[in-house]
Amino acid sequence: MRVGCPKEIKNHEYRVGLTPGAVREYVAHGHEVIIQSGAGTGIGADDGAYQAAGARVVKTAEEVFQQSDMIVKVKEPQPSEWAQLREGQLLYTYLHLAPDPEQTKGLLASGVTAIAYETVTDDRGGLPLLAPMSEVAGRLAIQAGATALQKANGGRGLLLGGVPGVLPGKVTIIGGGVVGINSAMMAVGLGADVVIIDRSIPRLRQLDELFRGRIHTRFSTIEALEEEVFSADVVVGAVLIPGAAAPKLVTREMLSGMKKGAVVVDVAIDQGGCFETSHPTTHSEPTYEIDGIIHYCVANMPGAVPVTSAHALNNATLHYGLQLADRGVKALIDNPHLRNGLNVHKGRITNRPVAEALGLDMVEAKTILAA
């Protein structure tokens, strides 16, 4: 199979869909790899590194899309990219379709077979291709929140860890999944006072055992959410419903009860965000203020640390990517976990949460693939 990797064009996106190490694996499986010139610049991999790994380097994204049977990316295709996709072609990348009707229309019109990293599953019920970027984003969330708290950046002027004789700042994390755990690890490391809110009592027990008293846990109710958000200096939104739009847990009205200059970091922004006042931002303009509350809502947070995140992502995506390259659509038929990643196929939506979020019809992946 001809596997193509274009340079990412989303604002301040420096990651790359295939590292030179991943290219070597595809080539070893007998596939031809086509890389756009400059695709790996953000991780310090020049064209020579890709050529040494066995890839063929071409000048333009158009050449990659035209010549490839399978496109491997990081972020969702932009309008100029989805216009180049075609029926019979595989697209393997993050999609986050639930809050993005325009991209969905573009993919449906193209006829492409689109597999979303964020809905591929594993034997334990996890999301193995989302997890590494959730780890990165969770850790970055505390760095971003601590920076935004500085007075010069519009925040309260508070040091999260405090100093002797001065209390530390408080971090409230909504959601105890991968993002929440990694945010808590960073916040605890800085010396902050940390609370994690979640609706799963078994998960709260696990968190309590994991952190051994270094954080507080609280079952999520409206009252608990309000109390913890109102008393926080940084609130991290870390809620995920696989494939679906994130629930709006913090309303505009609740902002009035928060401390002026407090910071909200919405890690769920790729799925529409879990704060009512959230809208996507970029690394060039990461924050904005509403009702005295600083909002950090960068939609590609791991793009800020591309060397770390690109390698972590490739470590996770390679196994499934090789299955797709080796077997094509048959890999989706035979592997139910990879099939769960299928979101669009030949003009039809195949993921129920996406279809429900957008109010569109769907067809079961197994049914349409068998046909």
Automatic annotation (TrEMBL):
It catalyses: L-alanine + NAD(+) + H2O = pyruvate + NH4(+) + NADH + H(+). Substrate binds at R15, K75. Pfam families: AlaDh_PNT_C (PF01262), AlaDh_PNT_N (PF05222). It comes from the Bacteria. The keyword Signal does not apply. Residues 149-297 form the Alanine dehydrogenase/pyridine nucleotide transhydrogenase NAD(H)-binding domain. One of its GO terms (molecular function) is nucleotide binding. The active site is at H96 (proton donor/acceptor), D270 (proton donor/acceptor). Residues 4-137 form the Alanine dehydrogenase/pyridine nucleotide transhydrogenase N-terminal domain. Belongs to the AlaDH/PNT family. It comes from Phyllobacterium salinisoli. NAD(+) binds at S134, D198, R203, S220, V239, L240, V267, A268, I269, D270, V298, A299, N300, M301. Its EC number is 1.4.1.1. This is Alanine dehydrogenase. GO terms for biological process: L-alanine catabolic process. Keywords: NAD, Nucleotide-binding, Oxidoreductase. The gene is ald. One of its GO terms (cellular component) is plasma membrane.
